[in-house]
Write a sequence for this structure.
């Protein structure tokens, strides 16, 4: 609804040819990509039948971090990758004058931010030990992917 994914999409549509600050850009992405990833992680935990409030809170931190990291990396790839590798038109965000992390922070800072988010996600998984290794691999993949 308007407080979730629809609201994020509304921010996205309204931000074309406008400069968003970092807070607004993150709000938009947390409500779009981030909301889908959070729901997936939370539903998986609930389906396990072993999720308590502490583990759900840790998994929420993880999901929020990888959701945002996914979008930061997507923005980076839109600049650095090519159309064949991406599977979509390279430079589409720039062509549509959409706000992105590289345009807001600069490429080096955007890359550093993606790594920072990955590290936050990995830290959130500490209480789970080796059982969370697949989630750790997912966090690493999100930041290291090339498409």
């Amino acid at each position: 609804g308007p407080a979730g994914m629809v609201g994020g999409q509304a921010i996205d549509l309204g931000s074309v040819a406008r400069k968003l600050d970092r807070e607004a850009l993150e709000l938009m992405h947390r409500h779009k990509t981030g909301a889908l990833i959070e729901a997936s992680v939370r539903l998986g935990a609930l389906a396990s039948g072993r999720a308590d409030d502490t583990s759900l809170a840790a998994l929420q931190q993880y999901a929020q971090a990888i959701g945002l990291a996914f979008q930061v990396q997507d923005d980076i790839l839109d600049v650095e990758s090519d159309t064949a590798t991406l599977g979509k038109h390279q430079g589409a965000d720039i062509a549509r004058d959409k706000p992105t992390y590289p345009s807001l922070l600069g490429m080096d800072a955007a890359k550093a931010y993606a790594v920072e988010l990955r590290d936050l996600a990995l830290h959130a998984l500490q209480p789970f030990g080796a059982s969370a290794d697949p989630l750790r691999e997912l966090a690493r993949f999100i930041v290291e992917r090339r498409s």
